[in-house]
Design goal:
Helix content is 34%, strand content 17%. It is of the alpha/beta class. The protein folds into two domains: 62 residues, Phospho-2-dehydro-3-deoxyheptonate aldolase, domain 1 (Alpha-Beta Plaits), CATH 3.30.70; 257 residues, Aldolase class I (TIM Barrel, Alpha-Beta Barrel), CATH 3.20.20. The N and C termini lie far apart (53 Å).
Length: 361
Amino acid sequence: MLVVMQSHATEEQVRAVCSKIESFGFRAHPIPGAQRTAIGITGNEGAFEAGTLEEMPGVGEVIRVSKPYKLVSRDLKPDNTVIRFPRTHVAIGGSEIVVMAGPCSIESRDQALTIGEQVSRAGAHFFRGGAYKPRTSPYSFQGLGEEGLKILSEVRDRFGLLIVTEAVDNESLELVEEYADMIQIGARNMQNFSLLKRAGRSRKPVLLKRGMSATLEELLMAAEYVMSEGNYNVALCERGVRTFADHTRNTLDLSLVPAVQRLSHLPILVDPSHGTGKRNKVLPMGRAAIAAGADGLIVEVHHDPDRALSDGPQSILPDQFATLMHETRQIAAVLHRGVAAPVSAARVLVSQEASRPAVAR
């Protein structure tokens, strides 16, 4: 159920409606819009008549929402959600496109700082890199853990890049929350409902990747789990799904972009690295994602991909990333969009080895 407040409704009236909803055993989710506030109602306890709310001061109408997802629906919020980051101009879901770039895994301090300097110089807004890596094989590199998070934090301090990195369980999420600007929930955990709920109790924005076999509705319902706990800063990510095709690692489903935008107010990014699994396909599919209307890209970049500890074949080189950024700006202009300016104008070259203190191990 959805309560749409009148455009002139006061904050006190909104609070009164929320209190009434909660008195019936439900949860109220007030989400301000451009013109008026909508209040989503979730929960499966109690019962009440819609007329009880319709007569309250400031209420415009009460709508029964037939979709299983309530909070992510455009029925609740017709205008797009824009996720903003404190002390920066970067916003996901607005008129400007954002780009996240970095290695699949944080392998060492030198590796992260080298790549961080290069993607920062090319215009990236976020540095991505895994400190915790859920791998198919238990014998593959699993990440550096908190040491990797500390390295990510140093990349942010040096180059002004925001940090997005994956949490794989509730314990790692607490650490990611401490070090990162945005929490990534990976494809393998898209339906890890306890992890989704924990992310929903965080105050950090969440990047939710589509599961490898997930439908559109299942992706939206996963986002609903996060939002139902009170965290409304959620961005979705298409990263390819499993099909019969064998010419790519996955099949990048760019039709998901307009489908999400029709049904939901949440921003959506595209990952052409996992979506293709092949370096020579990342730039073409990255360009196509922007043309399809994606709000941003998340791309794997490595300065020495042949020696990468994970996902080397799909990692592009720094000069290829610079080309992708140039092409992204050109395509965005055709769509009357822009690419956000770099987070920080100050860039520190990381080639000066003498300036790097040793990493404690």
